[in-house]
Design a protein that fits this description.
Blueprint: H1 2-42, E1 55-62, E2 68-74, E3 77-84, E4 87-95, H2 113-125
Antiparallel strand pairs: 1-2, 2-3, 3-4
Protein name: Flagellar protein
Transmembrane segments: 12-39
Subcellular location: Cell membrane; Bacterial flagellum basal body
């Protein structure tokens, strides 16, 4: 009976160790989730602000090592801003347009993957031009 009680004792010790490891893992995951929640709540400018106007950087161009011009979209207007030397200057206001990068100049994409693949291969064989 001595060997049976020793085997039972070892299995109980093994289960206790497994329980401790599982407890530490659960505590670690809870700590990671808590840190992520705190970061979202306390970090300024992170996430979406549903209370004010949505801001979107349309374009940016560096003019020097510390100066740049930024086009910022606020609702239906573009603001041309000068950024540099620790300050931001309003340069001009424009009505919002669709940026050239988002304008579709090519024909609409085919519906299926096979058609898209065939079109891409044809364009690749022609040297990348859209015209036949």
């Amino acid at each position: 009976m001595n060997t049976a009680s020793a085997a039972a004792g070892e299995s109980v010790i093994g289960l206790a160790m497994l329980g401790k490891v599982a407890g530490v893992l659960i505590a670690l995951i809870a700590l990671i989730l808590l840190c992520a929640w705190l970061l979202r709540r306390l970090a300024p400018g992170m996430g979406h602000n549903s209370h004010g106007p949505q801001l979107k950087i349309v374009a940016s161009k560096a003019l020097g090592t510390r100066e740049k011009v930024v086009v910022l979209q606020v609702q239906d207007q573009w603001l041309l801003l000068g950024v540099g030397g620790g300050q931001i200057s309003h340069l001009h206001t424009l009505p919002a347009e669709i940026p050239p990068s988002e304008q579709s100049t090519s024909a609409p994409l085919p519906d299926t993957f096979a058609q898209r693949l065939a079109q891409a291969m044809r364009q690749n064989l022609r040297g990348g031009s859209d015209k036949p």
